Amino acid sequence: MSATPVVVLVGPMGVGKSTVGHLLAGRLGLGYRDTDDDIVTEQGRTIAEIFVDDGEPAFRAIEKQTVRRALAEHDGVLALGGGAILDPDTRELLAGVRVVYLSMDVEEAVKRTGLNAARPLLAVNPRKQWRELMEARRHLYEEVATAVVATDGRTPEEVTQAVLDAVELKQA
Predict the structure, then answer these.
(1) Model-level pTM?
(2) Is the pLDDT of residue 170 over 70?
């Protein structure tokens, strides 16, 4: 089976990829898929548990295969985990696909997640670690993005409309 998602959402943890993805899929009359959900279902444990039990490299290997499969199978709205774009092969697979980078600043991240949720990469000094993650990843998000939509101070509905406008998708 070979498909191509209509739109792929990328961005940092807590930016609202899942929330916006569901809304976007509903407005477009398409299916929604989240690779983090796929991983949890397939592995039978949370992402945090995979990080603790097996380490980040093992998680990234699982994530890479999950993203590859989702990109080949899903023809709706697809949300990728925050670190999926770290893999060069994944970034290559995203070439030619409509990708929207949902961005936010650290203050918005604090408001949304409190930076104290079960986020394995933010366990110690979450603000500093979030900033460092974004410094390392921002250029990769921008590299794969067809469009960038800032989410700061916007409701999920406003972000969804901004995504539709940015990629010129028509609602169902």
Answers:
(1) 0.88
(2) no
